[in-house]
Amino acid sequence: MKKALMVWGGWDGHEPQQCAQVFEPFLKAQGFDVEISDSLDVYLDEEKLKSLSLIVPVVTMSTLSGEQEAGLAGAVQNGVGLAGWHGGMCDSFRNNTTYQFMTGGQFVAHPGNIMDYVVNISDHDDEITKGIPDFTMHSEQYYMHTDPGNQVLATTRVPGASDAPWTKGVVMPVVWKKAWGEGKVFFASPGHVASDFNVPELKEIVQRGMLWAAR
After folding, report:
1. 0.90 exceeded by pTM
2. List of domains in the chain
Protein backbone atom coordinates (compact mmCIF):
# COMPACT_ATOMS: atom_id res chain seq x y z
CA MET A 1 0.00 0.00 0.00
CA LYS A 2 1.22 3.51 -0.81
CA LYS A 3 2.03 5.60 2.24
CA ALA A 4 1.37 9.31 2.74
CA LEU A 5 2.61 11.44 5.63
CA MET A 6 0.79 14.66 6.52
CA VAL A 7 2.67 16.93 8.95
CA TRP A 8 0.77 19.83 10.54
CA GLY A 9 1.76 22.57 12.94
CA GLY A 10 2.86 26.17 13.31
CA TRP A 11 0.47 29.12 13.32
CA ASP A 12 -3.08 28.11 14.29
CA GLY A 13 -4.62 30.82 12.12
CA HIS A 14 -4.02 28.67 9.06
CA GLU A 15 -6.04 25.84 10.62
CA PRO A 16 -3.31 23.31 9.86
CA GLN A 17 -4.94 20.29 11.47
CA GLN A 18 -8.32 21.06 9.90
CA CYS A 19 -6.73 21.52 6.48
CA ALA A 20 -4.94 18.18 6.76
CA GLN A 21 -8.25 16.57 7.65
CA VAL A 22 -9.82 17.98 4.46
CA PHE A 23 -7.56 15.78 2.32
CA GLU A 24 -7.03 12.74 4.54
CA PRO A 25 -10.25 11.01 3.34
CA PHE A 26 -9.34 11.64 -0.30
CA LEU A 27 -5.89 10.09 0.08
CA LYS A 28 -7.35 7.07 1.88
CA ALA A 29 -9.90 6.65 -0.90
CA GLN A 30 -7.04 6.65 -3.39
CA GLY A 31 -5.42 3.73 -1.61
CA PHE A 32 -2.93 5.52 0.64
CA ASP A 33 -2.11 4.49 4.17
CA VAL A 34 -2.18 7.97 5.75
CA GLU A 35 -0.22 8.99 8.83
CA ILE A 36 -0.78 12.42 10.37
CA SER A 37 1.93 13.87 12.61
CA ASP A 38 2.25 17.12 14.55
CA SER A 39 5.99 16.74 15.10
CA LEU A 40 8.77 17.83 12.75
CA ASP A 41 10.96 15.15 14.30
CA VAL A 42 9.28 12.73 11.91
CA TYR A 43 11.73 14.11 9.33
CA LEU A 44 14.56 12.53 11.34
CA ASP A 45 13.24 8.99 10.80
CA GLU A 46 15.13 7.94 7.69
CA GLU A 47 13.53 4.51 7.42
CA LYS A 48 10.01 5.94 7.67
CA LEU A 49 10.75 8.57 5.04
CA LYS A 50 12.15 5.94 2.66
CA SER A 51 8.85 4.04 2.84
CA LEU A 52 6.71 6.99 1.79
CA SER A 53 5.11 7.85 -1.54
CA LEU A 54 4.04 11.35 -0.54
CA ILE A 55 4.62 14.03 2.09
CA VAL A 56 2.01 16.75 2.60
CA PRO A 57 3.39 19.56 4.79
CA VAL A 58 0.89 21.81 6.58
CA VAL A 59 3.19 23.87 8.81
CA THR A 60 3.35 27.69 8.91
CA MET A 61 5.89 30.09 10.41
CA SER A 62 7.75 27.46 12.36
CA THR A 63 11.38 26.47 12.90
CA LEU A 64 13.12 23.56 11.18
CA SER A 65 16.47 22.28 12.40
CA GLY A 66 19.26 21.57 9.98
CA GLU A 67 18.89 17.84 10.60
CA GLN A 68 15.12 17.93 10.02
CA GLU A 69 15.59 19.95 6.83
CA ALA A 70 18.22 17.53 5.55
CA GLY A 71 15.96 14.56 6.25
CA LEU A 72 13.00 16.04 4.41
CA ALA A 73 14.98 17.40 1.47
CA GLY A 74 16.88 14.14 1.15
CA ALA A 75 13.69 12.09 1.10
CA VAL A 76 12.23 14.21 -1.70
CA GLN A 77 15.51 14.18 -3.61
CA ASN A 78 15.39 10.38 -3.46
CA GLY A 79 11.89 10.23 -4.92
CA VAL A 80 9.25 10.94 -2.26
CA GLY A 81 6.63 13.35 -3.58
CA LEU A 82 5.93 16.69 -1.89
CA ALA A 83 2.61 18.47 -2.29
CA GLY A 84 0.98 21.32 -0.40
CA TRP A 85 -0.64 24.72 -0.38
CA HIS A 86 -0.50 28.28 0.97
CA GLY A 87 1.59 29.02 4.06
CA GLY A 88 1.47 25.38 5.06
CA MET A 89 4.16 24.69 2.47
CA CYS A 90 5.59 28.00 1.28
CA ASP A 91 5.68 30.08 4.44
CA SER A 92 6.83 27.29 6.69
CA PHE A 93 10.46 27.99 7.58
CA ARG A 94 11.67 31.48 6.76
CA ASN A 95 15.28 30.75 7.71
CA ASN A 96 15.64 27.53 5.69
CA THR A 97 16.74 28.38 2.18
CA THR A 98 17.27 24.76 1.11
CA TYR A 99 13.63 24.10 1.98
CA GLN A 100 12.58 27.16 -0.03
CA PHE A 101 14.77 26.05 -2.96
CA MET A 102 13.00 22.67 -2.89
CA THR A 103 9.45 24.04 -2.70
CA GLY A 104 9.98 26.64 -5.42
CA GLY A 105 8.71 29.69 -3.58
CA GLN A 106 8.40 31.73 -0.41
CA PHE A 107 5.57 34.01 0.74
CA VAL A 108 6.51 37.66 1.19
CA ALA A 109 3.16 39.52 1.45
CA HIS A 110 -0.58 39.47 0.77
CA PRO A 111 -1.40 43.07 -0.21
CA GLY A 112 -5.05 43.87 0.43
CA ASN A 113 -5.37 40.99 2.92
CA ILE A 114 -8.62 39.02 2.38
CA MET A 115 -9.96 39.90 -1.05
CA ASP A 116 -11.62 38.57 -4.19
CA TYR A 117 -9.22 37.52 -6.92
CA VAL A 118 -9.25 35.36 -10.02
CA VAL A 119 -7.06 32.32 -10.56
CA ASN A 120 -6.26 32.07 -14.26
CA ILE A 121 -5.35 28.64 -15.58
CA SER A 122 -2.29 29.15 -17.77
CA ASP A 123 -1.64 25.53 -18.77
CA HIS A 124 -4.81 23.87 -20.01
CA ASP A 125 -3.07 20.68 -21.14
CA ASP A 126 -1.38 19.61 -17.92
CA GLU A 127 -3.00 16.70 -16.06
CA ILE A 128 -3.34 18.81 -12.90
CA THR A 129 -5.29 21.65 -14.49
CA LYS A 130 -6.82 20.11 -17.63
CA GLY A 131 -10.54 20.85 -17.91
CA ILE A 132 -10.57 23.25 -14.94
CA PRO A 133 -11.81 26.77 -15.76
CA ASP A 134 -10.58 30.03 -14.25
CA PHE A 135 -12.10 30.53 -10.81
CA THR A 136 -12.48 33.14 -8.08
CA MET A 137 -11.13 33.01 -4.54
CA HIS A 138 -12.11 35.14 -1.53
CA SER A 139 -8.96 34.79 0.50
CA GLU A 140 -5.37 36.00 0.74
CA GLN A 141 -3.76 36.62 -2.64
CA TYR A 142 -0.17 35.57 -2.05
CA TYR A 143 2.69 37.70 -3.35
CA MET A 144 5.70 35.39 -3.51
CA HIS A 145 9.32 35.04 -4.43
CA THR A 146 9.32 32.15 -6.89
CA ASP A 147 11.80 29.93 -8.68
CA PRO A 148 11.98 30.79 -12.41
CA GLY A 149 12.46 27.07 -13.02
CA ASN A 150 8.95 26.24 -11.80
CA GLN A 151 6.45 24.91 -14.34
CA VAL A 152 3.62 27.38 -13.73
CA LEU A 153 0.10 26.02 -14.21
CA ALA A 154 -1.99 28.98 -13.00
CA THR A 155 -1.49 32.66 -12.22
CA THR A 156 -3.31 35.67 -10.79
CA ARG A 157 -3.12 39.36 -11.62
CA VAL A 158 -2.37 41.58 -8.63
CA PRO A 159 -4.65 44.65 -8.43
CA GLY A 160 -2.24 46.88 -6.56
CA ALA A 161 -3.91 47.28 -3.19
CA SER A 162 -3.56 50.54 -1.26
CA ASP A 163 -0.86 49.04 0.96
CA ALA A 164 1.28 48.08 -2.08
CA PRO A 165 0.10 50.10 -5.13
CA TRP A 166 3.39 49.48 -6.95
CA THR A 167 2.37 45.84 -7.44
CA LYS A 168 -0.56 46.73 -9.72
CA GLY A 169 -0.69 44.52 -12.80
CA VAL A 170 1.90 42.00 -11.63
CA VAL A 171 1.15 38.47 -12.84
CA MET A 172 1.91 36.17 -9.93
CA PRO A 173 2.24 32.37 -10.12
CA VAL A 174 -0.44 30.56 -8.10
CA VAL A 175 -0.01 26.88 -8.99
CA TRP A 176 3.22 25.19 -10.03
CA LYS A 177 5.13 21.95 -10.14
CA LYS A 178 8.82 21.18 -10.29
CA ALA A 179 11.46 18.53 -9.68
CA TRP A 180 13.79 18.15 -6.72
CA GLY A 181 16.20 15.38 -7.60
CA GLU A 182 14.09 12.30 -8.23
CA GLY A 183 11.13 13.76 -6.37
CA LYS A 184 8.16 15.70 -7.74
CA VAL A 185 6.98 18.88 -6.00
CA PHE A 186 3.52 20.50 -6.30
CA PHE A 187 2.27 23.75 -4.78
CA ALA A 188 -0.90 25.89 -4.84
CA SER A 189 -0.91 29.25 -3.05
CA PRO A 190 -4.64 29.45 -2.10
CA GLY A 191 -5.74 27.61 1.02
CA HIS A 192 -5.58 30.13 3.85
CA VAL A 193 -8.12 28.21 5.96
CA ALA A 194 -9.97 24.93 5.55
CA SER A 195 -13.10 26.59 4.12
CA ASP A 196 -11.07 27.78 1.11
CA PHE A 197 -11.28 24.20 -0.13
CA ASN A 198 -15.04 24.59 -0.48
CA VAL A 199 -14.08 26.10 -3.84
CA PRO A 200 -14.30 22.93 -5.95
CA GLU A 201 -11.73 23.99 -8.54
CA LEU A 202 -9.10 24.59 -5.87
CA LYS A 203 -9.81 21.33 -4.07
CA GLU A 204 -9.62 19.40 -7.35
CA ILE A 205 -6.30 21.00 -8.30
CA VAL A 206 -4.76 20.14 -4.94
CA GLN A 207 -6.06 16.58 -5.09
CA ARG A 208 -4.64 16.11 -8.58
CA GLY A 209 -1.39 17.71 -7.50
CA MET A 210 -0.97 15.26 -4.64
CA LEU A 211 -1.56 12.29 -6.94
CA TRP A 212 0.85 13.69 -9.53
CA ALA A 213 3.60 14.20 -6.94
CA ALA A 214 3.25 10.80 -5.26
CA ARG A 215 5.64 8.10 -6.41
Report:
1. yes
2. 2-213 (3.40.50.880)
